[in-house]
Amino acid sequence: MEIDVKKYKRKKVKKPGKNLGFDFVFGGKVSDKLKMIMYRELKVMLKSGVTLEEAFSLLISQYKNKKIILGLKKIREELLKGKTLFFSISQVKFFTPFEINSLSIGEQTKTLPRVLEELEMFFEKKNKLKSQIKTVLTYPAFVISITLGVLVFMLRNVVPMFRKVFRQFNSDLPSLTKKIIYVSDNFSFFLLIIIGVCAFVFLFYIKFRDSDKFRRITSNGVLKTPFIGSMVKSIYLSRFCNAMGLLLGANVSIVESLTLIKEMIMFYPIESSIDDIKKEIVKGKSLTNSLKKHTFYDNRMTSMIKISEEVNELEDMFNYLASLYSEEVEIKSKRIGVIIEPIIIIVIGSLVGVILIAMYLPMFDLSKILNSN
Hints:
Distance between the termini: 102 Å
Strand content: under 5%
Radius of gyration: 28 Å
CATH topology of the largest domain: Receptor-associated Protein
Number of helices: 16
Number of strands: 0
CATH superfamily of the largest domain: Type II secretion system (T2SS), domain F
Number of domains: 2
Oligomer: single chain
CATH architecture of the largest domain: Up-down Bundle
Shape: elongated
Structural class: mainly alpha
Order of helices and strands: HHHHHHHHHHHHHHHH
């Protein structure tokens, strides 16, 4: 028996902001892994006949983080007062508007266990994507950190030692050696410049990060970056398809699904396209034709969605596409790792090599002076 989605009325959820007070006490981020476990346990308990109030009481006893415990207690208190699940969870900032509205749909349509299962799978896939990206970035970040430490040590300790030796002989130094010694002598000054530039970039980002123009430029820049751009696109297409599969599986209309996705996926190419896609669908256009107007959604995706629209299997197709793009992310992340590692080694070797060559070049002249004496 199908659920009459027309009876469902989407409720407005206040978007997370920089508020203090009550939101600060019960707010804060919860990891995707923790959310996955939370939804899994809630699903199992509800299927076993446990009430929502009892389920949240059991969840409270399982966590040690005070902020999480306070949030779950707040939800349980509201439920005990007779409030709806939608109202109760909207009082806590653990949940995004996407999650809150998904749970609200499940509550209204009596399909909460199914929605919980879909949310569990959603965060499981999202957590897997994050793990893949972290795996790619961990090694380069570690090597770069070690390299910076070595360079600082050489400029602060090794180069000054050579400088003292060179001054004793009062000989003319090669141009490269003079430059390295100059950097070493003025290291604190250059460090302040680097810190100042980083601070400026950070403040600039803080001020303009919510600007549509800034977000458009930065997102387009990332997407055009070799190797990285392709992976980032696959990541967000995977999240888009995953979310669409979840919401369509909960019997949410396409237009409402797109509205919720806009609140959830904070990536400009997707956000900026949603309203236009919705307008086209309301006019009677197909989802496929609406997506085709935006280059971010590739031909493979639109072609497969076209087929699924014809046979009325959109939910399954979006779930399939989500898995497909997730696999792409895994392959591309490994490929990037293979490419980045040798590049990092070459750059590190070049930097250290330049310093060593600069220090040892004068030694040849010194050896000639000593031999002549």
